[in-house]
Amino acid sequence: MNSKPLLSLKNLDLIYTIRSSVFKPPLKIGAALNVNLDIHPGEVVAIVGESGCGKTTIGQAIIGMMKPTAGQVIYNGKDVTAMNRTEYQEYRSGVQLVQQNSYAALNPMRTIFKSLCGPLLHKKLAKNRAEALEKAREAMQLVELNPDDIDKYPHELSGGQRQRLLMARAILMKPKLIVADEPVSMIDVSLRIAILNLMARLNEQLGIAFVYITHDFGTARYIARNGKILIMYLARMAEFGDVQTVLENPSHPYLQALLTAVPIPDPEIARQKRELPLKSIDMPSAAFPPSGCRFHPRCPYANEVCEQDEPQLLPHRDVLCACHRVDEIPKWSLRGESDE
Ligand code: SF4
Q: If you take atom 3 of ligand 1, which residue's CA is the nearest one?
């Protein structure tokens, strides 16, 4: 990608401080540490990992909901903390969020009309009620909602329709980037593909970049098929690169183990799939992370160096990977082929 990044995360740390008792020192929990990520105009980046890996926290930092403990969020070349009022408003409109739980994201007392037109009038993106109504109806058509339903309440819509409504609300702000946090995990499987296709269409037609946050490789691969994928493990970046390269030839043992666990519908390929037995299935606590490589208590390739030294995210073939032994461990593919 030759264009300048639309949004960059530079050495970003996001640390929660929890005080359980006045008699105990506060506990610091690193939700995301030393995250570096560029998102270019129109690009799709999937962030994938298990619960507690930090993916949602990164999304919150991108949209300005969470202030970094250290590092920078840079939008259009400017640190968001150094922006003037106009620049900050542009950033907040330009980066929108579509949440997982559409019930929680929508006010149950507000009709679609109010949910869509309220922000338009508040941010002066429409001169009057009539113009706001026209824009809201256009947005509904764009996300394939029936504009005649504009007076309905959220409870009168299906899960898929509510997710489309969130998408319509986001695009009315004319965003350059949408952070979609598990947008299809709470809707019926049969409707998921329609929402993913809607996102792909908004990406292609309107040039909106997407950060797609998920634990599901299937949907990540589908939506970010021409984009990038970031694998997170316990607040750290484990692997980053083009989605096809990363998923076809995973380098990091954690990613290899995750892909081993993904069911394959083709029984022939499933039979050939090489297992990667982990030493433990339990994810360590983010409050008390293991020393060295955070994956070492579970990693079948861990050695003494892994127990002591934190691996850096470094170039490896065409990706970035944080593993001391990435050049030594057997190459891995779903079919179990190895050139070792
Ligand atoms: Fe496994 Fe060591 Fe690589 Fe961590 S650094 S993933 S423990 S081999």
A: 323
* Ligand 1 nearest atom to the CA of residue 306, by list position: 2
Does any ligand 1 atom lie closer than 6 A to the CB of residue 80?
no
**pLDDT by residue (tens digit) across 105-119?**
899 999 999 999 999
Give the ligand 1 atom nearest the CA of 303: 2
3-state secondary structure of 130: helix
pLDDT, tens only, 186-238: 777 777 888 899 999 999 999 999 999 999 998 999 999 999 999 999 999 99
Torsion of Cα atoms, 151 then 193 then 94 then 177, to 10°? 180
Contact 115, 165 (CB under 8 A): yes
Closest Cα to atom 5 of ligand 1: 323
State CA 229 to chain mean position distance: 9
Question: HSE of 243 in the Cβ direction (CA atoms, 13 Å)?
Answer: 20
Query: Looking at the whole model, is its pTM more than 0.85?
Result: yes
Burial of 77 (0-12, 13-18, 19+ CB in 10 A): exposed
**Helix boundaries (H) for the chain:** 55-62, 85-94, 102-105, 112-122, 129-142, 159-171, 189-206, 217-223, 243-248, 253-260, 267-272, 304-308
The answer to whether the CB of 293 is under 6 A from ligand 1 is yes
Instruction: Give the pair of three-digit tokens for residue 262.
Output: 């993904």
